[in-house]
Amino acid sequence: MARFIFGCSLLARVPSANGFKGGWLKAGGSASSLSQSAPLRARTSSVTMVAASLLHVAVPSTDPQVSAAIYGAAAGMTVQRTDAAGNLFVGFGAEGECFTLKLTAGALSDANLDDALLGVTVNVADAAAAVDAAKAAGAEVVQEAKNMTLIASIVPDEDPTKPGPWSMRATVRDPHSGLDLELVSPGSEGESSGAARLSAVSFRVGDLNAATDFATGPLGMTLHRKRSWVPNKAALSTFLNYAGSESEATLVELRYVYGKAYGRGKFRPGSEALLVLSTPDVGAAVEGLSGGADHAGVVVHAERGAVDGIGGDAAVLESKDALPRLRLGFVDELDFTMQTIA
């Protein structure tokens, strides 16, 4: 059975007792297909789903130490480990138990709205105080703390006539990585927790239907919420993870931004994102995601084997149709465990 501590999953994938064999589950009718504006509808075809756990997202920074200090000042995140290459893993708990940010030394790319990684959302006790602390540590303020009321969710189906949930929200930017941190403190009961945690990592998508279908289908994630950000933001998002609820583990937010061209054309170098997951069978993950009717234009960037910065038994894939420029790094569970105890 999965166990959770302070919003961090100790086992974020579906337990083997639910039907995984060799890391895969055959299922039908449980995944969703979402258009930009349509409600949830059931998939009718059988889908092969990967068994995986979210580990980290790579965040290049011109100064990883200073970036880590900013995240610590703003939200209380700490360095959990440093790998052999000197990369810092920052979060609220050990990687594998909690989702982390992997700070890597690299040049800061020019600010551009086509970045695949939009930012992260962090629950804090006091958003206004977190902004002051972040500024003192060198962060740039994108938006000061203010009350934000959200409209009813599309999934789950909420009553639009009732007052929406609200919370205090602010956004700061790390100038060394360009990463935006949305800081959220409690408003409506149940909307956010006062316990500090990394609640979501956000990626830009051009087709929310295709992206969410791929995440709930071949990737095997669970859709917990679909929400419009209007009138606060011209955007629509789905929220998914491998846990039983949205509060038990970090969410992957797939966000469609209205009026922003984003597709399969040529993009500037450095705008890709890398999301790393562990899996019990890297070979099965590569085979299942890169072939078959639901492969969604998957290409393999790194064949199974030693992949620099990920592991000795790993692979890197990307769905050009569903999640362009979001590269998915899969590492063997045992390989990952050996990395963390080395």
Count of helical segments?
A: 5
Q: What sort of overall outline do the alpha carbons produce when their principal axes are compared? A: globular
Strand order of the largest sheet: 8-9-10-7-19-22-21-20
Oligomer category: single chain
Radius of gyration: 19 Å
Mean pLDDT: 81
User: What is the strand tally?
Assistant: 22
Low-pLDDT segments, ≥5 res = 1-6, 10-35, 37-46
Q: What are the key terms here?
A:
mainly beta; eight-stranded mixed β-sheet; 40% strand; 5 helices; 342 residues; 22 strands; single chain; disordered N terminus
Written description of the protein model:
By secondary structure, the chain is mainly β. 15% of the residues lie in helices and 40% in strands. It has an eight-stranded mixed β-sheet with strand order 8-9-10-7-19-22-21-20. Strand 16 (222-228) and strand 17 (235-241) form a beta hairpin. The longest helix has 12 residues, at 64-75. Residues 1-6, 10-35 and 37-46 have low confidence and may be disordered.
What are the SSEs and their pairings?
Elements: E1 4-5, E2 8-9, E3 24-28, E4 32-33, E5 41-42, E6 46-50, E7 53-61, H1 64-75, E8 78-82, E9 88-91, E10 100-105, E11 117-123, H2 127-137, E12 140-149, E13 166-173, E14 180-185, E15 197-205, H3 208-216, E16 222-228, E17 235-241, E18 251-257, E19 273-279, H4 282-290, E20 298-307, E21 311-319, E22 326-332, H5 333-341
Parallel strand pairs: 7-10, 11-14, 15-18, 19-22
Antiparallel strand pairs: 1-2, 3-6, 4-5, 7-19, 8-9, 9-10, 11-15, 12-13, 13-14, 16-17, 17-18, 20-21, 21-22
Helix pairs in contact: 1-2
